[in-house]
Every structure is written in C-alpha cells, then in structure tokens.
Amino acid sequence: MSEHLWWYLSRAAGVVTLFSSGLAVVVGLLMSTRLVRARGLPKWLADLHPFLGSITLAALAAHLGALLLDGYTDFRVVDLLVPGASEWRTGAVAWGVVAAWVFVAVQVTSRLRNRVAPRVWRFIHRASVLAFAGSMLHAVQAGSDVTNRLYLLLASLLGLLVFFMLVVRLLDTSRARSGAARSRKVPVRAR
User: Fold this and answer.
1) How would you classify residue 86: left for phi > 0, otherwise alpha for psi between -120 and 50, otherwise beta?
2) Share of the chain above pLDDT 70, in %
3) What distance in Å separates the CA atoms of residue 24 and residue 108, rounded to the nearest whole number?
4) What confidence tens digit (pLDDT) does each residue in 158-168 have?
5) Nearest to 84 by CA among 76, 92, 94
6) Is residue 188 in a domain?
C-alpha cells in the first residue's frame, strides 16, 4: 500500500466534491429558470439534481476522512468541523469547512423538505451558490491540484458556468417580477 494513499484519496475526493457540487448548483439553477419550467421539467433532470447532491456529500465525507487519516497535515476532527480551528492554511480550510456545512444543511433540508418552511428551504438552498464559491476558494488556496493545467481549466470552466447560470437565473427572476409588477399597475385616471 502506498504511503501516500490517504493524500491521493483526499485529493480525488476533494476534486469530486468540487465538481459534483458545482454541477448540482448548475442543474438547480437551470431547473429554476422559466425556460425549463415552460417546457416541463424532464424526469432525468429532476433526478440528476439530488443525485449530484448525494455524490457531493459522499465525496465530502471521503475527503474529510482521508484528511484525518493522512499524516501530512495532522488534522484533528475539530480542524475539519470548526472554521478557523486549523493551524494549517487557516483561511483556506475555513472556506472549505463553511462550504461543507452549507452543503450538509442543503441536503438535510432537502430530505426534510415537507417539514421545513418553504422560505427556510429556499434560503438554505440558495446558499449553495455561496458554498460553491467557498469551495472554489478552498480549492485554489489549499488544493494540491492547482498547478495542474487541466484541473485549472476545468475548474475555471465550471466556475464560469455557475456564474453564467446564476446571471441567467437572476435575469429570469427580475423579468418575472417586472412583468408581474406591470400587470398589477392601476391605470391612471384622466383629470
């Protein structure tokens, strides 16, 4: 067995976590646009979104477990669960810890959606965009693969795709609101 097994596993699981979370955010944003809603939500897309969320949590658990078992950084459980507790690249690790907790909250509230107020569910779900941004910061500041050009290219493209879908979603929302506001305007009476 390689002495670097846990390091390789933590790297691989971290990469899978980053990409599956980014794709889950992209699919979620896509599902919430009028373009998809007007045509009807395909079942495969509705199934893909929670599947990517589950992959994210499984890869995240593997990432954290491998970091605990790898002797290079000597992480303690508290370092991986409390933002700012790690002495190794404190800020970078804190971004990852916060993102991890948001991803956990998104998954838990999604599983309990019928028991959670819709406003709370939406707020937490929308935070996944910020969690992905935190994951990107974590990956850039603490990741071992940032010198790999292919990794940088793919991660950058994913980040741009998330940003593009966020802009599409925000424009879609603002158009819907302005259209609703126009339809509610009371006609002005002539004096």
Assistant:
1) beta
2) 90
3) 15
4) 999 999 999 99
5) 94
6) no
